Amino acid sequence: MSTRFTQRGTPMAESHSLRLVQSATAVQEQITRHVAETLKARGYQDISPSLLGFLGALDCGTNYGSEIARRLNVSRQMVAKTVKELVRLGYLEQADGPGKQKQILFTGAGEQLMSDVRQLLVEMDALLSQQIGKQTLERAVSLMESIQQSSDLTSDW
Predict the structure, then answer these.
(1) What is the reported pLDDT for 82?
(2) Which residues have CB under 8 Å from 4's CB, separation 6+?
(3) Around Cβ 109, how many Cβ atoms within 10 Å?
(4) Which of 91, 80, 85 lies closest to 56, judged by CA?
(5) CB 92 within 8 A of CB 107
(6) What are the C-alpha distances in Å from 53 to residues 62, 151, 156?
(7) What pLDDT, on a 0 to 100 scale, did the predictor assign at position 156?
(8) What's this model's pTM, rounded to 2 decimal places?
(9) How is residue 7 annotated by DSSP?
(10) DSSP H stretches of helix in the chain
(11) Confidence of residue 14 (pLDDT cuts 50, 70, 90)
(12) What is the spatial distance between Cα 94 and Cα 64, in angstroms, rounded to a whole number?
């Protein structure tokens, strides 16, 4: 690792992990922004990158607010607010679940939205394959999956 310095001369070590996180975040934001803009052009006027990120974290079947909050590392209140908005927009519905929990489910419109998102991502795959090569794209995905699978690094700290 090389060393960088702050304006005050404090040394800061360079980190591949930091660059990985920054690059992965930038790619995710670019893809999400592109998908949201394309969806808006196709008639989904009420979809934003943040709503897409939320919907993308949901399972296809039944979801529960507490699970979503854990998965997204946000408060249950934030989940409830977002679910309420997506119910209002017609993409999600809530039903009584076990105990006091509410089941969170996709509506037909929500399933269609997610199907359209998947199709856009397939189109992006083709574009990326043209730009960087199919093998490079496949290798990048494989490497990210390998890093994700070995991300239990914190147990060694």
Answers:
(1) 97
(2) 11, 12, 13, 14
(3) 14
(4) 91
(5) yes
(6) 18, 21, 30
(7) 54
(8) 0.81
(9) T
(10) 16-41, 49-56, 65-72, 76-89, 108-132, 134-149
(11) confident
(12) 9
CB atoms closer than 10 angstroms to residue 144: 13
- Tokens standing for residue 147: 């890093």
Query: By the 8 A CB rule, do 82 and 27 touch?
Result: no
* One-letter amino acid of 152: D
Q: Which two tokens stand for residue 29?
A: 């934001």
Q: What is the pLDDT of residues 75-126, one digit of tens each?
A: 999 999 999 999 999 999 999 888 888 999 999 999 999 999 999 999 999 9
d(CA 35, CA 117) in angstroms, rounded, equals 7
Amino acid at 44: Y
- C-alpha 152: how far from chain center: 20
pLDDT band of 152, cuts 50, 70, 90 = low
3-class secondary-structure state, position 128 = helix
Question: Tokens representing 118?
Answer: 């998947």
Euclidean distance between the first and the last CA atom of the chain, given in angstroms as a whole number: 19
Cα–Cα distance, 63 to 49 (Å, whole number): 20
Cα–Cα distance, 81 to 156 (Å, whole number): 37
Dihedral, 9, 11, 17, 20 alpha carbons, nearest 10: 20
φ and ψ of 3, to 5 deg: -115, 135
